[in-house]
Task: structure prediction
Amino acid sequence: MPSLLLVERFDSVALVTLNRPEKRNALSIDLRFEAAEAFNSLAADDDVACAVLTGAGPAFCSGMDTTQFGGDRHNREQLVESSTAAFSAVGRFPKPLIAAVNGPAVAGGFALSLMCDMRVAAQSARFGFPELPRGIPPAYGAARAALGPQLARELCLTGRMVESDEALRRGIVLAVHPDGELRDRALELAAQVAAVPAFATLETKRRILIERERIFGPLFEEEERVFSEALLGGG
Result:
């Protein structure tokens, strides 16, 4: 069975690929645990200076694998534990992290991209929280930590999808590239970041994390609490 997550090395850059293309890289429990393990391992690897997160196939990530929702108490506990582990490992990754958004990044996939420090997109990329019309609150904490208040509120209150060109205009992404060039352009950007003296990038990332935690930490904690209570509160 193919690995759900691929990690490749290009000198001091690590390329992490969500590898469930047949499911549009939906975040299953196992994939979330693998992502958490991979990013924790890369965080501890002194030979890695920068990482890139992307998806296999035509999508970046379609969000949580909702086919696994429900079930017995153990399954629901796994849903909570794996989600907390994966998003924490990405959100607290101590090195620069670039999202190479190769296609639609929706729901939890959009949130995952927003947890990265920078985003570059393929022309076919789309962004948004389409789960909102189904009554599922989107990840406002991730949106607000990466985007301005007006844009974050609009996207979280309307569920509107944003095409790549608008994403560039509104600052969701740094650049938009032809689909076939995205991987190379993302790796070039990562190599540029990795070439800076390690102390400077690590210290800058430390300050980014301090800002995120001090300003937006309560939002993330509240969203984790609500998610946990929704799945486990019924006993």
User: Anything to note?
Assistant: The chain has one domain: 5-194. The helical segments are 29-44, 73-91, 108-114, 140-146, 149-158, 164-169, 182-194, 198-232.
